[in-house]
Design goal:
Shape of chain B: globular
Oligomer: heterodimer
Strand content of chain B: 5-15%
CATH superfamily of the largest domain in chain B: Rhodanese-like domain
Number of strands of chain B: 9
Strand order of the largest sheet of chain A: 1-2
Shape of chain A: globular
Radius of gyration of chain A: 15 Å
Mean pLDDT of chain A: 89
CATH architecture of chain A: Alpha-Beta Complex
CATH architecture of the largest domain in chain B: 3-Layer(aba) Sandwich
CATH topology of chain A: Sufe protein. Chain: A
Mean pLDDT of chain B: 95
Largest sheet of chain A: 2 strands, antiparallel
CATH topology of the largest domain in chain B: Oxidized Rhodanese, domain 1
Number of domains of chain A: 1
Low-confidence stretches of chain A: 146-150
C-alpha cells in the first residue's frame, strides 16, 4: 500500500503536465469519485458542527482515524466542483494511512499541482484551509482526548 | 423587464440561446467556481475569470489598459461587440466583470438575467465544447473614474454626509463578523461599517430563481425603504467590491441612478485603514437601534 506522500506525488505528476482547462477537467474527474457519506456519518450530519467555515461554499468534513488508518468523509455542495475535486483528492491520498503521513502533506500542494495559478490567490487560500482542516481533524481523531475520537 | 430604467441591459436565457453564435455578440461566463464553466457552459460562451483574468496578479488592482485590450482581443471581443455576462451565485461575478468592462468604457454590456441558475431552471443545454475564438480588435481608453471610488474620495463623501450603501450581510455591517457567514476572513483588522452607510444586503435585489427583482420591488427597497435618491452621488461597497458591483448594476441600470460608484477597496481596505471613521451596530450612525 503506497504512502500518502507517494500518492500525492503521483497526483501532482498527473496534474503537472496539463494546461489550465485540462487541470480543471481532471479535478472534475476526481470530484465525480467523491464517495457518498456512509450511514454512520449521515446520522451525525444534522448537527452542522463539521462545516468548514473558511470555505466559500457549504463543505462538511468528517476526518476519522480507524483501526485501518485515516478516513476522510466529506460532503460538498454541487455548485462547488473545484472544492469537491480537491476534497476527493485528499480523501484518496490519506485513505487508510497513519496520522503522521497525513500531517506531512505540504501546504504547497496546490502550487505543486499548478492549481494556484489557475484558481487565483483567494480560492487557493480557501482550499489550503481545507487541507489544514483535514490535518487538524485527523490529529484530533487520533488522540484519546480528541472530540472526534470514536 | 418592464419598468427598469434601462431594460435593454438585461437579456433572457432565450435571447442568449438565440444569439450565442451571433458574430456581433460574445457571451461571457464569470464564476466563483471556475470548474463550473469546464463542467458545462452556454455553447459559444467564453470564460473570463475575476481573479485570474481581470485582476493584476501583483498589485491590488485590475489589469491595466493594455492588459484589458489583450483580454478582449483574446476572447474575440471588439469595441463594438455586445458582451453578455452570466455566472453562478445570482450573477454577482458576472456583474463584477461587467463593472470592470465599464471601467474601461466598453459600450454594450448586458447581463443574462438569472445567470447559470435560470439557464438550468429553463432546462437549457450545457456544452463542454471548447470555443474557437477569432481574435477581436480592441482599443481601450484609460479607466473611467465615474464608476470607481477610491478611499480618499469615499472619506470625503462620508464627511460630506452623502449616501453610502453597505451591501454586506447584517452581521458584517454590525461588526460582529469580519467576513460573510461561512466565507474566508481575508484579513480586516476592524469590523463595522462606514458611518452613514445604509445596510441593504445584496441578495435582497434578487429573486429565488436568480433573476433581478421587479423595478417596483427594487424601488421599494432602495428608494422608498432606504431613502436613496436617484440624483445624489452614491457609493456602494462590500468586502472586496464584488457584491457591491451587483448593487451598483441595480442602482445604475435598473433604477436609473445618475452617479453611482463602486468602492472596490471596500471593507478589505477600509477595515485596515489607520484613522478612518468606523462605527459598529445596526444603525447608519452607530447609535443604539
Amino acid at each position: 500500500m503506497s504512502s500518502v506522500a507517494q500518492r500525492i506525488d503521483s497526483i501532482v505528476e498527473e496534474f503537472s503536465d496539463l494546461e489550465g482547462r485540462e487541470k480543471l477537467e481532471l479535478l472534475l474527474e476526481f470530484a465525480a469519485r467523491l464517495p457518498a457519506l456512509p450511514p454512520h456519518i449521515v446520522s451525525r450530519r444534522a448537527s452542522g458542527d463539521h462545516r468548514v467555515h473558511e470555505c466559500q461554499t457549504p463543505v462538511y468534513l468528517w476526518p476519522e482515524m480507524t483501526a485501518e488508518g485515516a478516513k476522510l468523509h466529506a460532503e460538498v455542495a454541487p455548485e462547488a466542483p473545484t472544492v469537491m475535486g480537491f476534497v476527493a483528492i485528499l480523501a484518496e491520498a490519506v485513505d487508510g494511512r497513519p496520522v503522521d503521513e497525513v500531517l506531512s502533506v505540504g501546504d504547497d500542494l496546490l502550487d505543486r499541482m499548478g492549481l494556484s495559478q489557475v484558481l487565483g490567490i483567494l480560492r487557493t487560500r480557501g482550499l489550503r484551509a481545507i487541507l489544514g482542516h483535514v490535518k487538524r481533524g485527523v490529529l484530533a481523531a487520533s488522540t484519546p482526548t480528541g472530540k472526534d475520537s470514536p | 423587464m418592464a419598468g427598469y430604467a434601462n431594460p435593454d441591459v438585461l437579456v433572457t436565457t432565450e435571447w442568449v440561446a438565440e444569439h450565442a453564435h451571433d458574430p456581433h455578440v460574445r457571451i461571457v461566463e464569470s464564476n466563483e467556481d471556475r470548474a463550473l464553466y469546464t463542467q458545462g457552459h452556454v455553447a459559444g460562451a467564453v470564460e473570463i475569470d475575476w481573479q485570474v483574468d481581470l485582476q493584476d496578479q501583483v498589485r491590488r488592482d485590475y489589469v491595466d489598459r493594455t492588459g484589458f485590450e489583450k483580454l478582449c482581443r483574446d476572447n474575440g471581443i471588439s469595441n463594438d461587440t455586445t458582451v453578455v455576462f452570466y455566472g453562478d451565485r445570482n450573477n454577482w461575478w458576472a456583474c463584477y466583470a461587467l463593472w470592470v468592462f465599464k471601467l474601461y468604457g466598453h459600450k454594450d454590456c448586458r447581463i443574462m438575467d438569472g445567470g447559470r441558475k435560470k439557464w438550468q431552471l429553463d432546462e437549457r443545454p450545457w456544452s463542454t465544447d471548447r470555443v474557437d475564438v477569432k481574435p477581436g480588435h480592441y482599443t481601450a481608453p484609460e479607466q473611467d473614474g465615474s464608476v470607481r471610488a477610491f478611499r480618499d474620495e469615499v472619506l470625503k463623501h462620508q464627511k460630506g454626509g452623502r449616501p453610502l450603501v453597505d451591501v454586506r450581510s447584517p452581521e458584517e455591517y454590525c461588526g460582529d463578523r469580519l467576513h460573510m457567514p461561512d466565507y474566508p476572513n481575508e484579513g480586516a483588522l476592524r469590523g463595522g461599517h462606514i458611518p452613514g452607510a445604509v445596510n441593504i444586503p445584496w441578495p435582497l435585489s434578487v429573486n429565488e430563481d436568480g433573476t433581478f427583482k421587479s423595478a417596483k420591488d427594487l424601488e421599494k427597497l432602495y428608494v422608498k425603504g432606504a431613502g436613496l435618491k436617484r440624483r445624489s452621488p452614491t457609493i456602494a461597497y462590500c468586502r472586496i467590491g464584488e457584491r457591491s458591483s451587483l448593487t451598483w448594476f441595480v442602482l445604475t441600470y435598473l433604477l436609473g441612478f445618475a452617479k453611482v460608484k463602486n468602492y472596490d477597496g471596500s471593507w478589505m481596505e477600509w477595515g485596515n485603514c489607520v484613522g478612518v471613521p468606523v462605527v459598529k451596530g445596526t444603525t447608519p450612525d452607530g447609535s443604539p437601534a
